[in-house]
Queue: 3 jobs
Job 1
Amino acid sequence: QVQLVESGGGLVQAGGSLRLSCAASGRTFSKYAMGWFRQAPGKEREFVAALSWGGSWTSYADSVKGRFTISREIAKNSVYLQMNSLKPEDTAVYYCAAKLLGGADPVGYDYWGQGTQVTVSS
């Protein structure tokens, strides 16, 4: 029912920019948090950024604050992650996720996309 599809990953040089997109479908997301996570090979998945669909808040990991911007386009039911000043350490598979605010699990995300690879060359 709920489907999240990421796109926009690719290979960029350090210092470059990339915009990831997450197309969400199957539900009205007005009461959801939408987040971006990433996982590098052999490492734990980590939080990158999130927003409330209603637009009341955004949140960023310290490692990306000031470089990445999360946003949503309501008409397209899409969430974006604008990534600037990319570093090799940003290399990872990036996942879009959705979490019902006020749901049974106060922390975990309920739905996940398939991921899109971002590779930053040095």
Job 2
Amino acid sequence: QERVAESGGDSVQAGGSLRLSCVASGYTYPTLCMGWFRQAPGKEREAVAGINTRTARTWIVASVKGRFSISQDNTKNTAYLQMDGLKPEDTALYYCAAHEKRWAGFCTESATDYNTWGQGTQVTVSS
């Protein structure tokens, strides 16, 4: 019942922008951690950014800070990843993930903390 679905991936030229969307559904608990992760061929999955849906507190990794930002429309249970100044190195399959935040502490960058994952949306950046 609980699931997330991401969309918005595309093929763009370097310097372009994309906005990815992630819709969470089936949750009754009000506070979620929602995060974005990505995986390029031959590389491990890496964290990108995340948000606490109640407090709107965010985290973002240094490698994309200043180019990417995360936000939400809580009325739509949707998190967004705005990606500007895209580089070929950003090419990856981007995943959205979520889990209920039932305990104190911050939403984390650890993929193991997230128990609901989308199918991924492909972002390809050409030079």
Job 3
Amino acid sequence: QVQLVESGGGLAQPGGSLRLSCAASGNFFNAMGWYRQAPGKQRELVATILGDGRTIYGTSVKGRFTITGDNAKNTVYLQMNSLKFEDTAVYYCNFVIAGRVPYWGQGTQVTVSS
């Protein structure tokens, strides 16, 4: 079983920044990153790192958010800059091994408000 520990959520002002982290008990993955879900909306991809090192970003966050990894700590980070009201959501860490059911973190709240 893979366990995911999320941190870094909270309150930020529009134009501000937050950094999320997700630490995994496992250290092999085919994809690891973040999804988010706002009330009344479907869960959407925010950013992910693939096993070959490539990164993929959702259209709405491209150019504002950056995902990075620290292999020594089995952790991925999501640096969120230029935050907007519409970034308000619960953010879920996602961990994927090919051929297996994905693992999900419990979610961390990000709220952007003035």
